[in-house]
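Field reference: "sequence" (input) and "structure" (output). Example, DUF155 domain-containing protein:
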Amino acid sequence: MASSVPSAYGEELPSSTKTKPKAATPLRRTAADSLPIRVNPTPTRGNIQPVITLATAERYLLSRLRLSTPSHLQAQMLHDAWYIPRWSTKKGTQGDSAQEGEIFVFGNGSFVCWGLDEKGAQNFAEEVLRARRDVEIGRLKEPEVEELDFVTDPTEWVNSSAPKTRLQGDLIILGEAPPISPDAMLTTVPPTPFSPETILARYAFSQALSRSTALSALEVSLEDYLAGMALLPQSLEKTGKPGMSRKQLIKKLGELLKYRQGLNLNRENFSDTPDYYWDEPVLEGYFNSLSNALEIRARTRSINEKITYAAELQAVLRQLLTESSAHRMELIIIVLIAVEVVIALIREGPELWRKLTRSGDESEAHTALVH
């Protein structure tokens, strides 16, 4: 049986459970701020439920996902997400309770599940995302998982200046519907387990969560990449050689450029606020509050710095390989010249020797005649 460790709220959790987001983020450092909500239930407040985010690939092709999603799910595009309004899991054979929630799938290779646990999220990935092989591009070896909690309370209030729907500590509180422009509202909202009035608030929080989880997957991949490059300086120090061929180095460079492109240049990058929020300051506030709590911009800068270091290291290695290649070319040219000289001597040597000896004989004969 797995041992247990105390959680931030005095409960015991299995030691094998991964607590995410990581403890270093402000979201975990301010987890105690949600304690008043967690320990003081009210008649109007719902149960605390999970928000699970899974990243399973480098990106999803949403156009192909639309073709593989069963029609009875009534899925539709919601701005940058493929929205599944209702996803149900059956009661498991091991006593697992049935669950019902909603799912937002984003093109950055992650999806966010409201009201489902990790097993329910994995069930969706197996049944829908992998129904076609071409939906997941660059499938990850291990899915990256992040988890938060949320609670609904349409009467929730803090004070006259604080929003009712908000992030408090590590808990998302869905209060009354946010004031948004009529153009942003959905024309038709399919049946969903949660209030349709806060669907855009859930979308904004989901987009921030999906970015964080996709960024975590990129962080893990980059750490593996840097671990593979970590021995190169030692190899240079001990042997004076890079320890890899030119082709291997070019492949490593291509992999590094792919990381930087995914981080900064793709449409769903990690630095810019999506255009949709420019006209919706309330939703932008939800998105930014969770993005800031998860330190997405700071983590993006950190990854860029690591990529820059790796690029500088590879530039040094490329220069060494170029110099080594130039030195080899010089040696080859010298050898070729020497071979050409030897061949010329072999081919022209006898004739040249005859000319030299004939010239010597003629000189001796001329000297004899003179005397």
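Residues 214-324 form one domain.
Confidence is low (pLDDT under 50) at residues 1-19.
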